[in-house]
User: Fold Laccase from Punica granatum.
Amino acid sequence: CRVRHYKFNVVMKNTTRLCSSKPIVTVNGKFPGPTLYAREDDTVIVKVVNHVKYNVSIHWHGVRQIRTGWADGPAYITQCPLQTGQTYSYNFNITGQRGTLLWHAHILWLRATLHGAIVILPKLGVPYPFPKPDKELVVILAEWWKSDTEAVINEALKSGLAPNVSDAHTINGHPGPVPNCSSQGYTLPVEGGKTYLLRIINAALNEELFFKIAKHNLTVVEVDATYVKPLETDTIVIAPGQTTNALITAERKTGKYLITASPFMDTPIVATDNVTATATLHYSGTLASSSTTLTIPPPRNATSVSDKFTNSLRSLNSKKYPAKVPKTVDHKLLFTAGLGVNPCPTCKAGNGSRAVASMNNITFVMPTIALLQAHFFNISGVFTTDFPSNPPTVFNYTGTPPANMATKNGTKVYRLPYNATVELVLQDTGMIAPENHPIHLHGFNFFVVGRGLGNYNARKDSKSFNLVDPVERNTVGVPSGGWTAIRFRADNPGVWFLHCHLEVHTTWGLKMAFLVDNGKGPNESLLPPPSDLPKC
Ligand code: C2O
Assistant:
């Protein structure tokens, strides 16, 4: 194993997209940011220096951070942010993981431009469980706002209304050809006959996406840095925070083919950015002036396309990569995830109310001291451990909501003993209207054992759980008006954030944290914090 050193200078950089320029927050002046390469079992040390006016923290999304919660990154959950001028070295091991993940800012809405790929190769000499590709390429999907994203969310919080949507989606930083500007969009160069591994990442703030390439099928071999049974498809569905590795064979020999990243939102209750980002798959030897073979992306509400893809994913579950699904469960939890409205006398534009979001009817309030610090140093008054295992009131989650369902504010965690096995059913609620929620759990991978529409019915639905080869991930979409059941083992002591990866929902409070106690064994406790951990 090696130690990989990286230096991330967080700096402003004037960047032009859609014919207009604005200063954006970047790592080393790049958008998307630099790719972090490592091998399974390597140690990674990233020295982050904050040169911008915002407080900053960086999250290594999907890296398990076993016993090193101090390097996880979510601001006020595992660390206080780096203030202007401060430096912090994130120091962690990549234990037992290989594949594609992403890093991103985990404070405010800085993730909009502060993100990049993490590529973890297998240990030296260990092959992929699929044919070796000729080449590998990172494909990052994101969004672009013409205006300043911090201003967008601050304005929304003041008014109580939903924030403005982005002006475009992007593929490796580019929306596509923009008439009247010299911008051509991203070109993915291929050679006829060769096979490519695309490491596709959705880093967008607020949009699930469909990804498609004209006249080329994709074979999905990995999601969220876990191997899956090869799945051939013409369309990939990918939620913010998710990653998908897919093989593509350049079997057409020549030509140019359209690549699309288009929004998926089955029941949009607020406006969505409806613009499809495009890029070009360009065979070597093809003239730049030749015409591009087009493809039509699925309609925005193509739930059937999304369901088919999602329901087809299975863990590889081979001898070498077995799916270690917990067969018994110590903690059975049901968390509702939903949007709602709370009174807000100062919200004039919102008519005296504001949009909120909650889990089990609790709108999470960010503390001012990081939860992990409060836990480790026994600082009282920062959080309470009474996050409910079930919704406080049972109602028809996907039907007409009861009147007066204002949420309660709180900084509550759910406490788990070390190594407890957990089944968590995430139930969407239709408080304003149903919406999909890509829920991300820090510190763990989980198995997606079940998924369905309507209200979860424990007796009936648990009978059909897949405990053999369910897909293993770190971020899962809870279907609009439905539920998803996950299982995991709490084998990582610390405080771990669980939240919707649609940034607007997180901002509104769709988040909570698990507190996992230390175990009794020699390697079962949280390590002490590094000396340069930022102070609050
Ligand atoms: Cu990718 Cu808590 O986030």
Notes: The domain at 128-313 is CATH 2.60.40.420 (Immunoglobulin-like). The pocket of CU-O-CU linkage is lined by residues 59, 61, 74, 104, 106, 241, 440, 442, 497, 499, 501 (CB under 6 Å). The chain has five helices and 33 strands. The chain has a mean pLDDT of 95.
